Structures are given as C-alpha cells and as structure tokens.
Amino acid sequence: MAECQATGTKPAHALPAAEVLTRFGTSLHEGLTNAEAQRRRARFGPNMIPAKERAGAFTLLLHQLASPVVYLLAAAGGLSLYFGDWREAAAVIVVLAVNTGLGFVTELRAARSIEGLRALGTRSARVRRGGHRQVLAAEDLVPGDIVLVEGGDAVPADIRLVEASSLGADESTLTGESVPVDKSADAAAADAGLAERSSMLFRGTLVTRGSAAGVVVATGAATELGGVSRLVEQAEPDASPLERSLERLSGQMVWGVLTLAVLLAALGVATGKELRLMTEASIALAVAAIPEGLPVVATLTLARGMWRMARSNALIERLSAVETLGATTVILTDKTGTLTENRMTVRRLALPAGELELIEQGCGGSPEAERLLRVAVLCNDASLGQGRGEGSGDPMERALLQAGRSAGLDREALVRDLPPVRKHAFDASTRMMATFHASGGRFVVAVKGAPEAVLAASRRTVGGERDQPLDDVTRDLWRRRVEDLGASGLRVIACAEGTVDEADAPPFEELTFLGLVGLEDPAREDVPQALAACRQAGIRVVMVTGDHAVTARSIARAVGLAGPGDRVVEGVPGAGPLDGLEDVAVFARVSPAEKLSLVRAYQQRGAVVAMTGDGVNDAPALKQADIGVAMGKRGTDVAREAAAMILLDDAFPTIVGAIREGRVIFDNIRRFVAYLLACNLSEVMVVGLAVLSALPLPILPLQILYLNVVTDVFPAFALAMGEGRDDILERPPRDPKEPILARPQWVRIALHAAVMTAATFGALAVAEFWLARDRATVVTVTFLTLAFAQLWQMFNMRAAGSRPLRNEVTRNPWVWAALLLCTALLVGPVCLPSVGTVLGLVPLDWIGWTLVLSASLAPLAVVQLGTVVVGALKASVCEGRPV
Predict the structure, then answer these.
(1) Is 334 considered catalytic here?
(2) Residue 154 region, left (φ>0) first, then alpha (ψ -120 to 50), else beta?
(3) Which tens digit of pLDDT belongs to each residue from 76-114?
(4) pTM for the whole structure
(5) Out of 140, 334, 547, 618, which one is annotated catalytic?
C-alpha cells in the first residue's frame, strides 16, 4: 500500500504522528501549500478508485436482445423463413432492428444520465492548506494533506491520525466488524491487522463520533479500499419494484400470447383451415399482442423523471424511491434549514444581570457578555471569511463567531492567547461540546450545548465580582428564561466554562454557567405554500426536532404547520402505535433513537413515511423510513448513505416537488402501459375474430409489424413525457400496494380495445359489402382505420375528471409531434406505390379516406362521450341528486 511506500519500510500506523508529518513534508496547522498540492496531484493522480466500468455500448446492445419479446419476434421471423415468406421475414428483421435500436439508444442515454446524476452527489473533504481551512472535492486530496473529520463524515482517503477526540469509526464495509471501533493518535503495532490499526482511518469507512485531524497517507487505488475495490460493485442499484413489475408483465404477456397462438392454430387446423394460413395468423396474433415499446419507454420515463427531480434539487439515490414518493402519506421533517432558512444570527444574550439585544451594537461593553461570547468563540469548529456570510462550518457556530467578531473577539487572536489542546466533540448523549485551552499552568474548559444539559453540569453562575453557587431556585429561573426566548422563536444554547489542572480531566464537571444565547433562524417564505399543498394532497406533515418545545411551536405556527387544535409533545411517548396522538403537529426534544421509534410507530398505522435527517444518528431512522431524505448541504455522509433521496438545497418545498414528480412518473407509466395494451389488444381481437369467423385476415402480419413500430413506440414516448395534471397534488396518495394496472384500468383497456375493434370491422364491412371494393383496398381501409384509431387513442388517455379539450394530454407538445410523425408514416406508404407494394397497401380515393377518418374517429367520440356521461353520473351520486 502507499502508506508503506511513502514512509519507508515501517508502515504509517506504527510511526509516531510527528514522524509521519515530517516524512510527508507537511504541517498539522499549515498543511500543504496549493502549489505543492498541485505537484502531488500530478504525481499521484486523482483520489479516485477505479469503479465498476461504465455500461458499455455493446453490453447494452446485448441487453436489448436478451428479451422475451425479441425471442418471440425472432421465432415469428424463423417460421416465416420456413414457409418461404421472405418479405415477411425481412419485415420481422426490420422491426427487430428498429425496436432494438430504439431500446439501445434510450437505455444508453438513460445509463449516461444516471451516471451524470451520481456525479451530482460527489463527496467533499475539509482540509488545511496554506494555513487556511478549505472544503475540497474528495478527489482533489493528495498524500500529505491535512484532513479534518468529525462524526457523520465518510473518510475520503487513508489517514494517519495526528489529533483525535472521542473518535469512533464504523469500519464494517472494510473489516466486517459491525461494532464501531475506537480511534486515537497513538501509534499501533507494526504487525497489527487492519481491524487493529487504531491510529488509522480508512477510505470508505464512516466516522460515528468525535472529531480528528490527520495526514493523508494513501489516495485512490493505493488505499486499503482500493485493494478490495470489487466492493464498490456491490453498490450498484438493483431494478426497482416498478421495473420488475413491468418485466413480469412483459413475460406474462409473452407466455399468454404463445398459448393463445398455439390454441388458435390448432383450432384452425382442426376446423379444416390450411396449416400455412393458420401459422401466418398465429404469427400475426403474436406480433399484434406484444407491446414492443414497453421496456424502452419505461426506461426513458424513469431516467427523465430522475433528471427532472435533480434539476429541482432532489437527487434520487435509489430507483425504488421514485415510485414510493407518489404514495407518501406522512412527512416527518426537521426544522432547521428545512422549514427555516438555516441562516443563523445571534439576536439576544440572556445574562445573570439581564438581557442584551445583540443586533449590530456588539455587546455594549458588558463583561458578562464578553465572557459568554469568548466561550462561544473558543468552543467552535467553524471559520469566518472576510465578508459577512463567508466561511465554513455549522451555521449556528458561524453566527456565534460573527457575534464574537462584532464584540471585538476574533477567534485567531483568542487561540493565540489560549491555544487549544483538546476537544470533546458534540455528542448526542451529552448534548454538549467542550474544548480545552492552555492558560498558564492550567487549562480553561469552554462548553456550549443544550441549556438543560449545561445547567445540569454547572455548579456555579456568574454573580458580581465572584461566581455564585447555582441553586435550584436559580436553575428554575434560567429554565423559565429558556422558555421565554424559545417563545420568541429563538433557538437557545447555553455556555459555561471551567478551569482544570489536567488536559485529560472530565469536561463537564464543576462548570460556571455564563448565560444563554438566542439565535434567530427565520422561517422560509415558501414553506407555508408547500405545507398547504401537502394538506391538499392528503399528506400529513409533522415536525420532529431536537429543539425546545416553545421554539418549535413558534416556528410551526409561523409556517402554518400547527393550528389551534394541534399539540406539541416533548419526546416520543413509547414505541407502540400512536394512539391518541393523531393531533400532534410537533415532536420536540426528540433524540435520534426516538426518531426511529416514531417512524416505526407511523408505519405500524399503515403510513408511508418520508423522513428527513442530517446527522449520523439519524441514519437508522432514514433507513427505516419508506423514503429517507438526507440534507445535501448540512447533512453528514452517514445520513446521505442511508437515504434514498438527497435534498441539494435542504428545502422542504423540494420534498413536495419530488412527491409531485413521483406521482407524475407513476401516472405516465400507467398511462402509456394502458395505451399500449389497449392498442395491441385491439389488434389481437381483430385477428382473432377474423380467424374464428372464417374471414380472410383483415390486416396482414407485415402490416401489424409496421403498425406496432409506428403506433406503439412514438405515441408511448409522447405520453411518457407528460408534465402531469395540474391537480395531481389535490388527490389522496395512492396505495403503495396498488399494481400498475388495477381492475379499473383493465376494464378501460378492454372497453377501448373493443370499441377500436368494432370500428375496424365496421370499416371493413362498409368497404367490402357496401362499397364493394377489391380485397387490397379493403385491407388498406382496415389497416388505416385501426392505425388512426390507435393514434386518436392517445386522447382517450386523459385522466377521469379532466376537461375533454384542455387536459394533460392535449397540453403535451410531444403528443402533437407524435401525431404528425405517425400520420406521415401511415399516409406515406399509401401514397408511395413502391413502399405500399411491400406492405400490401394501395392508394385510396376520397371515399376511402372519408371512411377511414370517420370510422377511426368513432372510438374517440364514443369513449369521450362515455367518459363525460360516467363523470356526470358519479357527480350526481356524490351530490345526492337523482340519476
């Protein structure tokens, strides 16, 4: 591995930290210079592990051929060759080529689209370069970089620890060890196994707690994970349930068609018909029944939907999330950054001597305020730039640094006088953070955290010239002040400090309570409208936050989440069903473990739950939820790994938009599947009824092949590109167990196919018996009538209740483009004798065209009239009027 190559014969994990820094030519506090980092980047290359190769074009082409539909068409072509029908066999080959080509191009574009989507979710790393803290793309790391990590981060390279505070890492992906392991900066034994190298963090593992700084000793393929890079291939997503349902439907149709074709041929031969004629009819039936465009259009729909979501700042990590989104019934949402702007500003300081508004005037020269702000600046992991709003780190910590700067307390100057020697990272169990700073021969401990936790750890409070004991009465007074600040919509934290003799002393004992900081995080202006859309869509939204109840209630009311009759509950009262808690709008002071219980409790009630989270401890709840939603800006890598969707803007309205898109995708798939099956069923009925009634085939196998290419693929593509109904969020969520085609859809498919079949036979009867046209003309009229009836069928795919002339289908420009293209492809062979001869079509006079148009429009008129009548009857029943 690279760590051995770069540090001599002794591996980096066995060397003292100082020696590793020296051998890599770097400094803990300065890091590499940008120029040196560029030179090393050129030498070592990007910090990337060769992942599974992109799906090659040839592989995707073979995938198109490995389909039951292709097998059936190939068999039909083989039978045509056996009977010497070269023209029909050539047509089957052409259809196979066109179908395979369309599928290949679509899947290739979809595969490249998915690869592009994954690039949107690339990881970043915090480093020190040139003495400054920077955030870089993980692939830009080089050996010798100083990397800073904390709980929730994914380790971006192999790192030798130099400093570590309460550090733990989940190395299960690399070592198989399911329990997080403790890490420290102390050297490990030279012969230690991978799982025993406590001084190392390895690429691809997850930091579960604490914080650390270390030097990169290996990048890219030279890392331990690079040596077992086959693990990366296991992360390839499986087909979604929706895709599996479509594949299952296609497979069932193929076997059903084969059975029907064999029965039809046997019945015909048994009744005295020629074997060749019945074989030809069976081939026609088989070709007619298979929706060749089904898998192609499904792939396009899912890929396009995922890109539309990504453009709206919702990055889908798993395809299964696309279909589940449309069935979401409950959203459990965080507050900070999701319902609020995550733009923290310190507004008020609550001090023992009183309260101080901290807008722009600094701290007014108050010693108590300066002492509190000094702790807030020291106990801090963020950094500020030169201008307001610049810098990096947690927004709350940046706000504390800004407040300190306005009071003349600059962090760089403070740490020069009080150099940090130890940090106790924020822990969900203690709900506090502490830093130790050298001061003379002793150490100052700066602490900040949840008010109740800091109060519990404090023994004294500031009072006059000397600190005073913190008794129960004073604690109650501070608790009431916490509630008052929270009721004003402020997020409240507390600060305390202590003095100890040893740097390894416990951080949360014998502290002096300094006061409270009230931070304002205004509600997002677009949240109330999004919440209203959720209510209209039948989706319940519940705030789940670790903040104080009064603060959560204030924000909930500001955004319209909590009404007069809604309750705010602290904690989760038990892990069973939420009996009696249906009116709870806010769960406050919820721990990460309680979030998991809350998700399970809602799921026990049959809810489809979307859960937002950003921390390492949110990962179990995100995995448990039907849709885990991680924050893209402030979310930890652990949360992102556990989630099915990542919000690139951390905004609640993005969730609502993704739910809408999920419903649109499902509706579009259901729409084009129903369209394809209705059209193909009409072809089956036309051929089957003709054979059973001893009539000549009204439409030839070659014509059916051509018809399926024209009226299957292009209209289905157009329907898949629909933008969705305007009122799609005004209806209740669908049942996630509901199949793509439920009984109502199958009934409509059968009725629509029957109407098209009747129109086709009607045109055939008029042409043959009334107009007394020749056989070629009759076949042409029948073919065109069925073809145009299928084109008009696109307009029958509007949703029930939508307007006949202005709906999601008529507003779709792709539908009109498909209509024009298909019309040209149908009229062209009739007008061009050379092409018409191949397909068995002849030109028509004006009478023939009039018959074709009138007969083909009849199904559209019948279905539209029936839809209006049924809608009126339903409305009458709902309103209680007599029918």
Answers:
(1) yes
(2) beta
(3) 667 767 766 676 667 667 666 766 666 666 666 655 555
(4) 0.70
(5) 334
